[in-house]
């Protein structure tokens, strides 16, 4: 990356995950998160497309259990995030490392009925009770 070169947020996320030795990402790509999946593959993370978000999150949590490094689950906002909750709860209860990245609508569209708008962070931030 050259000095002064514009870098996308998706690329920064992918590079941060790769710096943490993340090897696998599971999920279903959709409008808010497609760029992250593409950027992850560009830095060498294996993206595994699944049929639904619940299965993707369980697979990511299983990778966390098997490797001791966080598994990553990539989901769209709203219903995609909600479908991942079972896998998130399972990983939390079992103390398995898991990162869930959920898409969102643009901030300037909040409360205007944006695509799959849902305040997922505010609704589910109780699940993050420890880091490290």
TrEMBL record:
Gene3D superfamilies: 3.40.50.970. It holds the Pfam family TPP_enzyme_N. GO terms for molecular function: lyase activity; metal ion binding; thiamine pyrophosphate binding. GO terms for cellular component: peroxisome. Residues 8-120 form the Thiamine pyrophosphate enzyme N-terminal TPP-binding domain. Keywords: Lyase, Magnesium, Metal-binding. SUPFAM superfamilies: Thiamin diphosphate-binding fold (THDP-binding). One of its GO terms (biological process) is fatty acid alpha-oxidation. Its cofactor is thiamine diphosphate. PANTHER family: 2-HYDROXYACYL-COA LYASE, 2-HYDROXYACYL-COA LYASE 1. This is Thiamine pyrophosphate enzyme N-terminal TPP-binding domain-containing protein. It comes from Cairina moschata (Muscovy duck).
